[in-house]
């Protein structure tokens, strides 16, 4: 008689110290657990093998990406119910969480017996979607390019299905939750342009330009001459075609270039939207100093960046294993206070900080809805594993923004000249200065 689900539930309760708050369905078709909740589906025995060999977030991630583990029902609700049992305790995220208890020899023996394993007990191979950034110093030019390629060079057609016509891959600016993603993304781009006080003839640098949406909007609407830089070959090719199709090739240049390699400043304004998360704490002072040097006196920087909550011991910060292995290799988050401090230490005068946390939750939910609506195409355009990565990470991030575990902020900073004249109006919140 099928019984794997009940035995799995017992094993989970021993590891977690409390019953799972969701129902389980095992590879033999059996189910066990509270009715009316999302169902955590272990499609193959290999899901448990992955957890026994890599207890915690990485084992779960590999099982999810490989399709060994799934959710039947509301994914958001499943993640919300499971978060405190698997990853969080005392308000702080722990890398391995309570599943680390599966390292206990007695529990591992129970798991092996349930799987009917005999020696040698070899771990399953990671899914092919796991990042391989290679050797070299972290955040070197070469390694950063490989890390960016892992995330962004997965096919422009795939991103079209997820992001929609705007092709903007950062937090939108919503008038209300009932608004459209396209309107919210256009509002965000325009907000950045107004904060930078862009005007015809000015020179704009967009660091991490993605598929070119910011430079296109700035050139078309505000008459600037714009340079957009990216490390992604696929993004650059797509952006150049958009620029040519818009008839703006005489005013917009797209480069495959690292911000550390730019030598043709100064610029009147710099936008960095959703790029600084890739810089890394060890390089952030260099990033801030480089952007300061690229601005003319009186020029403005708009730095749009995800932030995490501060820790009592900042040296204990670690990147989530799922995010680091499958989503943003070598990416790092910092508290907004540290970002502001490092911009100031580089010489900037920080004039405004606007928190957009709720806006990013709405944006991510829209992207998840787009992905689910175009699921078959997304799988065809990339791989089942890649599509599963994006669905999980975007849904989980939406919940993290909603719960105030992470935030996102627009920091407006000025390279204030020696005269002290910032060029900003006395009242900045209307952003007409």
List keywords for this structure.
single chain; alpha/beta; Rossmann fold; 2 domains; seven-stranded mixed sheet; four-stranded mixed sheet; elongated
Summarize the structure.
With 433 residues, this protein is of the alpha/beta class.
Instruction: Label the CATH architecture of the largest domain.
Output: 3-Layer(aba) Sandwich
**Contiguous runs where pLDDT drops below 50 for at least 5 residues:** 89-96
Number of domains: 2
CA distance, first residue to last residue: 73 Å
**What amount of the residues lies in strands?**
15-25%
The overall pLDDT, averaged over residues, is 89
How many β-strand runs? Answer: 13
Strand order in the sheet with the most strands: 9-8-7-10-11-13-12
> What shape does the CA trace take?
elongated
- What's the CATH C level of the largest domain? Alpha Beta
CATH superfamily of the largest domain: Vaccinia Virus protein VP39
- Helix/strand-derived category reads alpha/beta
What assembly state would you assign to the polypeptide chains in this entry? single chain
Helix-strand topology string: HEEEHHEHEEHHHHEHEHEEHEHHEHHHE
Q: Biggest sheet, in brief?
A: 7 strands, mixed
Total of DSSP H or I helical runs spanning 4+ residues: 16
Q: What percentage of residues falls in helices of 4 or more residues?
A: 40-55%
CATH fold field value of the largest domain: Rossmann fold
């Amino acid at each position: 008689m099928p019984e794997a689900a009940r035995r799995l539930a017992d094993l989970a309760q021993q590891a977690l110290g409390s019953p799972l708050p969701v129902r389980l369905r095992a590879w033999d078709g059996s189910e066990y657990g509270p009715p009316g909740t999302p169902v955590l589906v272990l499609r193959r025995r290999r899901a448990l093998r992955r957890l026994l060999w890599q207890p915690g977030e990485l084992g779960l991630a590999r099982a999810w990406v490989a399709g060994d583990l799934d959710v039947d029902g509301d994914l958001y609700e499943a993640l919300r119910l499971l978060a405190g049992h698997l990853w969080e305790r005392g308000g702080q995220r722990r890398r391995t969480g309570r599943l680390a208890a599966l390292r206990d020899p007695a529990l591992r023996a129970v798991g092996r017996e349930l799987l009917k394993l005999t020696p040698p007990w070899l771990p399953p191979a990671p899914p092919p979607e796991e990042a391989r950034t290679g050797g070299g110093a972290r955040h070197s030019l070469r390694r950063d390019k490989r890390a960016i390629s892992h995330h962004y060079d997965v096919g422009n057609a795939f991103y079209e299905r997820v992001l929609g016509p705007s092709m903007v891959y950062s937090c939108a600016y919503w008038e209300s939750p009932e608004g459209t993603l396209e309107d919210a993304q256009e509002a965000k781009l325009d907000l950045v342009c107004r904060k930078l006080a862009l005007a015809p003839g000015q020179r704009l640098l967009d660091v991490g330009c993605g598929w070119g949406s910011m430079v296109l909007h700035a050139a078309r609407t505000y008459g600037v001459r714009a340079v957009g830089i990216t490390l992604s070959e696929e993004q650059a090719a797509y952006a150049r075609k958009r620029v040519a199709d818009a008839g703006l090739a005489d005013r917009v240049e797209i480069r495959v270039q690292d911000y550390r390699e730019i030598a043709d400043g100064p610029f009147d304004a710099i936008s960095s939207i959703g790029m600084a998360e890739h810089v890394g704490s060890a390089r952030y002072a260099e990033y801030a100093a480089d952007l300061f040097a690229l601005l003319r006196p009186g020029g403005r920087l708009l730095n749009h960046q995800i932030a995490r909550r501060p820790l009592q011991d900042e040296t204990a910060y670690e990147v989530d294993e799922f995010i680091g292995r499958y989503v943003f290799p070598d990416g790092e988050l910092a508290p907004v206070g540290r970002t502001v401090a490092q911009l100031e230490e580089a010489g900037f005068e920080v004039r405004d900080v606007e928190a957009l946390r709720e806006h990013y939750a709405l944006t991510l939910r829209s992207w998840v809805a787009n992905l689910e609506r175009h699921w078959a195409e997304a799988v065809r355009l990339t791989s089942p594993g890649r599509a599963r990565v994006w669905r999980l990470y975007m849904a989980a991030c939406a919940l993290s923004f909603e719960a105030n575990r992470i935030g996102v902020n627009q920091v407006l900073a000025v390279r204030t000249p020696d005269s002290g004249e910032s060029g900003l109006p006395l009242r900045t919140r209307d952003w007409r200065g």
